[in-house]
Design a protein that fits this description.
heterodimer, A: about 350 residues, alpha/beta, Rossmann fold, 3 domains, 3-stranded antiparallel beta sheet, about 35% helix, B: alpha+beta, 5-stranded mixed beta sheet, 10 strands, about 55% helix
Amino acid sequence: MIRRIEKDLTRFKDIVRGKIKRDLRKFVSQGEMFGRKGKNIVSIPLPGIELPKFRHGDNQKTGVGQGEGGEGEGEAGDAAGAHVMEVEVTLEEMAEILGEELKLPRIEPKGKNEAVAPVGRYTGIRRSGPESLRHVKRTLRAALRRQLVAGTYDPDDPILIPIRSDRFYRSWKEKEAPENNAVVIYMMDVSGSMGKEQKEIVRIEAFWLNTWLKSQYKNLSVRYIVHDAVAREVDEHTFFHLRESGGTKISSAYDLCLQMIENEFPPSLWNIYPFHFSDGDNWSGRDTDRCLSILSDKILPHSNVFCYGQVKSAYGSGQFKKDLDGRFGDEEKLITSDIPDRDGILDSIRDFLGTGK
Amino acid sequence: MNLTPDLERARVEIEGYARDYGLDFFPTIFELVDHDQLNEVASYGGFPVRYPHWRFGMEYDRLQKGYTYGLSKIYELVINNNPCYAYLMKSNSLVDQKLVIAHVYGHCDFFKNNAFFAHTDRKMMDRMANHGTIIRRAMERHGVVEVEDFLDACLSLDNLIDPHAPALRRPHGRMDEESGPGEVGKLPSKGYMDGFINPSEHLHKQREKQEESHQRLQRFPARPQRDVLKFLLDHAPLRRWQQEILTLVREESYYFVPQGQTKIMNEGWASYWHSTMMTRKILKDSEVIDFADHHAGTLATSPGRLNPYKLGIELFRDIERRWNMGRFGKEWEECENLDEKMRWNRDLGLGREKIFEVRRVHNDITFVDSFMNQEFCDAQKFYVYRTNPRTGQPEVASRDHRLVKEQILFGLSNLGNPLIEVQDGNHNNRGELLLTHRFEGLELDLKFTEATLQALERLWGRPVHVETKLDDKGVLLTCTKGEISSEEVTPSGETNRSDP
């Protein structure tokens, strides 16, 4: 039987989803509105979800307390304005909403049958095992049966005391299950022309790309490469905050990316997603030629899809995208996208993920 | 009832003690439920069946998360009905269950005997279920979304009622509405004395008064009306099913009013009785620590917060002590010898009797106002805090019981809601609705006010206004076709308020 409250809860969740969807562009372009809660939950301020009423504002500066006085929580004062109701949404739900709104196709992973790994599942029962895995229900049932037989069970005082021989434990069996792994390799140009705003755009877009890809793959690894004239691998924080000056040699990043794929992520076992963000400047035409040939000979055959996002900056010429489009115009695996500003993030996500590769 | 044998034994025992102490309650039915069920019932305000609405789902979501993360847990839930229904959570320990059972009997006694609950519908459980049927039927006929939208609008206004209405008898059509301003009555006098006995300026004033009271009758409503929902029911252009829904929303609002009016007393009374019964009759030696831990948790205070359980139980205990020792009445009040006051004990033993009387006739406002004195405030360490404008930090401002009392009473008046009345149902002679907010020092929350006005306009069908104060200036907020505008006005509410 469905409980009544489930219907009301579903209706509430629908309303929340509807509101998020309606304002998706706003949420997507303002990544910092999110409070991350733990690993898997974001909390989104949704003004207007509560029923409005005539009520007093938060300008009450006095109140009554009881006790010595002492140190309060000290939360008054800095919390300006009214509280806004926040709803918690899991990243999976968020990905689902994103997918529905952008009409993203589900990804057909490659190498479905090639990669298998053992998976443990708690499906068995044993008479011995660690206490943490004790099967309470079966244990108590055994104790009840024994006490009934022994005549020590009193229905008015229903106390069951399991003894050693009553105990049951869960146990696990190994099963071979197909695995699908994916790796995202983010590359970003950190030369002087990429400003703070450009990096913020990349950061927000990367968050959403990860969210979607995580909902599609069981295991998702994320790696970061920065480059100016040389390339190196960095951690997430550095990736989004590093600021360098100097020239731009894109081929250095592609070299490193290729090296990473060849050493760590054999394409037969991994779905590979290289993303490259830059403002479109490169050192020289000769380097661009090198980039194109690395892409066409090595990276593209290995990757599910290669995405290039060109963030508009005051200095960037945007030449690189033209070069890529000129060379790979009809190559399905290479997707380029222009991101003029924050509002362009959503469209660019659609460009990248819309093919379902 | 589905209690386990040992719980049922405990219940029978506790019910016996409760009756011995003189508690008087409706039959009380306990249900043993798991946390999912308890949270469900709690989301519905204690009722197993109500109309479908998403806000119950929102509440359920909140309760479930609180329980899952171990932040909050509901111990006790009891509803005012005949019979009373109370819920016990399966996973609680036996000591906790005993405490809750004793606490529940305290509440049930309060529901049955407190004057402010006297007018509530004791078959509310059935009525709530009927409301469910009404709304479900409306949804089938007119569409879920349309009914839900209308219901949302009604619920936005459900605090615009008059909490004292059940006790008031208002004049109805007693005044002769047809007669216009007639001749001003003159005192009989001989012609040559007339100018002295009936001076012309007096006659003039009388005439003005009559004029005004006549004009008031022309107004609509004749005097400001606090029960805004009633006014809407009588005068808004609603369809039949909309009338039904607004009526049931209003009924439910009134049903919940006494709970708000007696929160401190009700919880105090129930805590007084669980504490008395547990410590004197029920507890076994092995249970004392667990009980003390739980009881202390219920009564804990924290800086800047007022715990109604604590305030209530301590006031009841103080009253009992004072009436036992004869510390009341003229003689006590007028005694100025502190030493004598300290040793004052007349051994009257009237305490129990007095607190039973108090629980019968008082509500939170009169309870606090009548019994909170300086000695009590000192002993309980109450204080008023104020935010220091320089540091932005709250500071203890005073421990004077008059200020403490004033602050508590202020928070209790009108159940903490802003006082809003219908001023004019034909504003500007264009059928627009004008409400006034009787400003008492706290501004309205602007965002919420705007959204509420939009809901009000949906019901009224014509532009609506509310007059209030923002930054010490009179402001008229208007909602026309969903658009909000505001203009400055000189507050008119003040002059109108002087009406008798």
